[in-house]
Structure formats: structure tokens, C-alpha cells
Amino acid sequence: VEKTALLYEGKAKLVYTTTDEDVVWIEYKNSATAFNGEKKADITGKGRLNNEITSLLFSMLHEAGVENHFLERKSETEQIVRKVDIIPLEVVVRNITAGSMAKRLGIEEGIPIQEPVVEFYYKDDSLGDPLITEDHIEILKLATPAEVDMLKHVARKVNAILSKFFASKDLRLVDFKLEFGKTNEGKIILADEVSPDTCRLWDIATNEKLDKDVFRRNLGSLTDAYEKILERIGGEQHV
Ligand code: C5P
């Protein structure tokens, strides 16, 4: 396939149509954003790192039986994926308290959660991506109750696979966000990305943060952190 026209520009990616109507071409940008776009920076190497890490993780998930949109990495910063209509829901899974849940519930970060928690956020920048309930999802017609059950089931399965994988690389999967989309045939599959932009990953021994919190909280070099993740999960090294 070849890329044809720009379809959409997001905060972290450019999406192009291709010569195949069932395939889109994604280019990962170097821009980092946080707090609903309030904090922004351009970070050399970020696009390459996320493209490479997402490609590795989606291939691994595919092999583990989780259908997803990833097809092939095309260059350092580009990949092709199956075209889907993204469901405007962010499905968050949490194994350890952190981030917005710790803040919302007034609890400390870093406390293990016995049974992983699944949350839904409504993807809407103007509303600030609010936390929503399953009833809200039904009212907004974002997904049917059966689809919501399926999303939770797949999210838990992804959590089990990724937690085990990262633990084998001495990384703790604290929490992460997934997005799903509908293919042209109407099938719901995992889409978007799985990277240190969308996961919290802590070093198992030191609890060092190796994810986007490094940027959100000014903890040091984001690319050094992402490079460590890539190195540990077995990608190419660019030193
Ligand atoms: O901010 P919060 O604690 O709700 O984030 C939970 C997880 O979801 C984190 O791993 C974060 O990186 C991810 N997330 C994301 N995109 C968002 C919101 C959260 O990838 N818009």
C-alpha cells in the first residue's frame, strides 16, 4: 500500500488514507501533550520510540490472541493499521493506585489493587474526557451493554498478558488506557496504541517511573525513560 492523503491529525499522530480503503497509514509525531493539551513539548525521538514500542506490543498481543488493528511497521516513525471507526471511549485498567484515581478517591499512589479496576472515560476534549458509567455509555449510544461487557473482558485479558510480559522485563504495569474501533465489517478490535504514553510502567526494584509521568511531572528525560522500556522489551537500540 501507499499513503495517499492526510485524513486526520491528532495530538500524537498523523493518519493518512492509503491505496487500500481498509488500511490507514499512521505517523507518530514527536509532540508530547498532557493535561488535555495544556502542557506541550516537542521531544526528538519520541515518535520513533512509541512507534517501535507499540508495534512490538501489538504484535505480541496478536500472537496472544488479541485481535488488533496493527499490520506492519513501515519506518522508524510510521506503521500501517486496519482502518477502524474509533469508539470514543478510553478503557483504563488499573493494577496499582496512581494518577487520576488516586487523586479522585483521595488515596495514596502505589497501593496494589486486589482485582484490577476497569474504568471508562468519554473521549471528548471539550468535556475534558470525563469518567463515565456504563449507563452513561448506553444513554450516549457509544456501545451496547453486550459490547461494554466485551470491552471489559478484552481489557482484562490484555491486562493479564501485558502484566505478565512486563513483569518478565522487571517492569510493573501500574495502569494503562486502551481504545477500540469498529472495522468496515462491524467487528470491534483493539486499536490506537499501547506505549509508555498510554501506560504507567515502574521499575520493579526501584519504582522508577519509565512512562509519560516523566513528562507530566518533570522527572527527567522522557526519551531516556522510553529508550529503557524499548531496550527491556527487546527492541532495537539507538544509542
Ligand atoms: O490520568 P489517569 O490516572 O486517569 O490515567 C490512567 C492511565 O491511562 C495512565 O496510564 C495514562 O497514561 C493513560 N491515559 C491515556 N490517555 C488519556 C488518559 C489516560 O493514555 N487521555
UniProtKB/TrEMBL annotation:
Pathway the protein contributes to: Purine metabolism; IMP biosynthesis via de novo pathway; 5-amino-1-(5-phospho-D-ribosyl)imidazole-4-carboxamide from 5-amino-1-(5-phospho-D-ribosyl)imidazole-4-carboxylate: step 1/2
Coiled coil residues, start to end: none
PROSITE patterns: SAICAR_SYNTHETASE_1, SAICAR_SYNTHETASE_2
SUPFAM superfamilies (alphabetical): SAICAR synthase-like (SSF56104)
Reactions catalysed according to its record: 5-amino-1-(5-phospho-D-ribosyl)imidazole-4-carboxylate + L-aspartate + ATP = (2S)-2-[5-amino-1-(5-phospho-beta-D-ribosyl)imidazole-4-carboxamido]succinate + ADP + phosphate + 2 H(+)
Highest rank taxon of the organism: Bacteria
Enzyme class: ligase
All copies of domain SAICAR synthetase/ADE2 N-terminal, residue ranges: 6-232
Keyword Amino-acid biosynthesis: no
Listed InterPro entries: SAICAR_synt/ADE2_N, SAICAR_synt_PurC, SAICAR_synth, SAICAR_synthetase, SAICAR_synthetase_CS
Any one Gene Ontology molecular-function term assigned to this protein's record: phosphoribosylaminoimidazolesuccinocarboxamide synthase activity
Protein name: Phosphoribosylaminoimidazole-succinocarboxamide synthase
Provenance organism: Sutcliffiella rhizosphaerae
Gene label: purC
